[in-house]
């Protein structure tokens, strides 16, 4: 009986993997994304958009699950604050899309066996197709225009700016101990 009590007391502490560093990273990335989208609202919403905050998506390759969760939460918050108010399709659609895009890139490239540009390419396609499809429906545009406009904006934000961020940040966060190559945050 004593073993069960001791096990029940020790297990929650030992098995909890969500440490303060991960919680902090999730919070930071959620805030950065939401603030970036809201403060750059003229560029962040609508069929023709360049979400500068989407440049954070490729950082899932570097930081892993904290970015996946943080950016998904940030997307949810940013889409709730959309001045055009496209409703639950946009709020949930964007959140799920960014979750899928960041998760896929992390799983493909997180091990450093696949070049990060492959993961970024996947993110561009995922965001362009899913968001472009539902925005064309919600805003009464053609599917080709919806996906095409989203592709251009996503390519600029994720492909160009996101690639630059990954190159700048990857080695620096390892050298200062935010992450290490064996055990991401």
What's a quick, concise take on this entry?
The protein is mainly alpha-helical. The protein is 74% helix and 0% strand. It has helices at residues 2-15, 20-39, 41-44, 60-63, 65-80, 88-109, 116-139, 143-175.
Largest sheet: none
Q: Helices and strands, in N-to-C order?
A: HHHHHHHH
Overall shape: it is globular
* Tally of DSSP helical segments: 8
Radius of gyration: 18 Å
Helical proportion, percent range: over 70%
* Mean model confidence by pLDDT: 89
Distance between the termini: 36 Å
Spans where pLDDT lies below 50 across 5 or more residues: 4-9, 11-15
Strands, total number = 0
Strand content: under 5%
Q: Which class do the helix and strand fractions yield?
A: mainly alpha
What does this 3D model show about the protein?
The chain is an all-alpha fold. Helices cover 74% and strands 0% of the residues. It is built from 8 helices and no strands. It has helices at 2-15, 20-39, 41-44, 60-63, 65-80, 88-109, 116-139, 143-175. Helix 5 (65-80) runs antiparallel to helix 6. The protein is globular. The model is unreliable at 4-9 and 11-15 (pLDDT under 50).
């Amino acid at each position: 009986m004593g073993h069960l009590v001791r096990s029940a007391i020790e297990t929650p502490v030992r098995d909890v993997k969500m440490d303060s560093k991960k919680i902090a990273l999730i919070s930071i990335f959620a805030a950065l994304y939401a603030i970036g989208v809201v403060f750059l609202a003229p560029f962040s919403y609508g069929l023709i958009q360049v979400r500068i905050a989407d440049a954070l998506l490729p950082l899932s390759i570097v930081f892993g699950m904290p970015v996946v969760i943080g950016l998904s939460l940030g997307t949810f918050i940013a889409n709730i604050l959309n001045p055009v108010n496209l409703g639950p399709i946009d709020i949930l659609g964007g959140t799920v899309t960014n979750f899928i895009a960041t998760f896929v890139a992390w799983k493909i490239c997180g091990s450093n066996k696949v070049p990060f540009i492959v993961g970024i390419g996947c993110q561009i396609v995922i965001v362009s197709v899913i968001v472009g499809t539902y925005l064309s429906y919600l805003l009464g545009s053609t599917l080709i225009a919806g996906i095409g406009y989203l592709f251009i904006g996503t390519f600029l934000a994720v492909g160009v700016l996101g690639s630059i961020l990954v190159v700048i940040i990857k080695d620096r966060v390892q050298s200062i101990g935010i992450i290490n190559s064996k055990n991401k945050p």
